[in-house]
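User: Please fill in residues for this 379-position structure.
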């Protein structure tokens, strides 16, 4: 996945590039992203943590040490390096409870007196994020640049609220949702509910789907669970998910299905492609990246990956917002494309991979191409 600019990262690094703040060997970067002036030669021993696979791959390619951070915690929520880091950088997520938990973690992992420095775009809630940070950190210094706010405080300073910070650190802990059917946590896609688009797709999955299947962008595992419960012929189910936090939840939520199908879990960027040989693919592809930007090209890349991964005659079952421009991507590599349902601003599409090299066959019922029918419906 290519970079589309990262103002928050650029703003964060500026204070170190111009000497306003010192770089420290062995610093920690939470929700790290690659790009801008971030160079391992300038940051000896920088430990990068990110849960987003494309960011992890970019950081590794740039020469940094990267982990997802999920294996660090102990039963009481602390980590082995609490109170040791000489500097902590962070790019907070948009979801408020998740961000508050990350602010608290950053302060806990910083050595007493060490700088904790965060950067948030103005249109991503920078003022609210700064105010939240100040509630637990005490007085903060602020700098505005690139339409972002960079704010910092020293860990353990006067005016901090360690009791509130301890409460906040647990705000993104996993918890039951959907009447206890699933475990989820703040920050994961549709974390506190069943996503209505995914539910629409699930209702239209035919019981006769069979063979090797995969869920592209599996989230906490809802569509995977529905596919396994509705389609007894599925023998293999691979969950591909770029968010390590979501994938860990899916592993828990799908554990009960391990006795009837081979279920695999892959921290993976689907836009980079997936292995071939699947009979069925289901997907509610993302069209935003973690910093909140709308990226319909991500969904198109999911569709292209699906076309390459399916066996001839295999089917992709996709749900998406009606306005998203996926028609061209669906017209490449698939022999049949049909609109299955439209409801609540969403569309469910079945796309069947061509079985030969001939031009795509006409769509099955409804007879007109699904994109043409959609356009007519809007008029």
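Assistant: Residues filled in for all 379 positions:
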């Amino acid at each position: 996945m290519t970079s589309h600019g990262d103002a928050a990262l650029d703003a964060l690094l500026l204070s170190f590039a111009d000497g306003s703040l010192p770089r420290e060997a062995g610093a920690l970067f939470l929700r790290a992203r690659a790009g801008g002036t971030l160079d391992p030669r300038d940051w000896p021993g920088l430990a990068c943590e990110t849960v987003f696979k494309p960011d992890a791959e970019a950081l590794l390619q740039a020469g940094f040490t990267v982990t997802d951070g999920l294996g660090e915690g102990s039963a009481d929520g602390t980590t082995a390096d609490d109170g040791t880091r000489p500097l902590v950088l962070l790019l907070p997520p948009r979801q408020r409870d998740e961000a508050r938990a990350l602010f608290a973690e950053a302060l806990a992992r910083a050595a007493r007196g060490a700088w904790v420095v965060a950067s948030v775009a103005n249109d991503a809630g920078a003022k609210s994020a700064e105010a939240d940070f100040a509630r637990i950190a005490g007085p903060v210094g602020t700098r505005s640049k690139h339409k972002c706010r960079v704010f910092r405080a020293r860990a353990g300073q006067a005016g901090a609220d360690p009791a509130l910070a301890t409460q906040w650190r647990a705000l993104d802990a996993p918890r039951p949702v959907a009447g206890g059917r699933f475990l989820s946590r703040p920050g994961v896609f549709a974390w506190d509910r069943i996503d209505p688009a995914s539910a629409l797709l699930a209702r239209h999955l035919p019981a006769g789907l069979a063979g090797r299947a995969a869920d592209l962008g599996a989230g906490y595992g809802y569509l995977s669970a529905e596919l396994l419960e509705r389609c007894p012929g599925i023998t293999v189910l691979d969950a591909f998910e770029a968010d390590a936090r979501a994938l860990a939840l899916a592993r828990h939520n799908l554990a009960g299905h391990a006795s009837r199908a081979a279920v695999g879990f892959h921290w993976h960027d689907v836009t980079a492609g997936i292995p071939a040989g699947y009979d069925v693919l289901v997907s509610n592809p993302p069209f935003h990246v973690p910093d909140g930007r709308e990226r319909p090209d991500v969904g198109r890349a999911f569709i292209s990956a699906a076309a390459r991964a399916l066996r001839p005659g295999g089917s992709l079952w996709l749900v998406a917002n009606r306005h998203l421009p996926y028609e061209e991507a669906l017209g490449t590599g698939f022999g049949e494309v049909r609109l299955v349902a439209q409801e609540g601003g969403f569309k469910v599409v079945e796309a069947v991979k061509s079985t030969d090299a001939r031009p795509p066959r006409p769509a099955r019922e409804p007879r007109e191409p699904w994109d043409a029918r959609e356009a007519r419906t809007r008029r």
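For context: Residues 23 and 146 are 21 Å apart (CA to CA).
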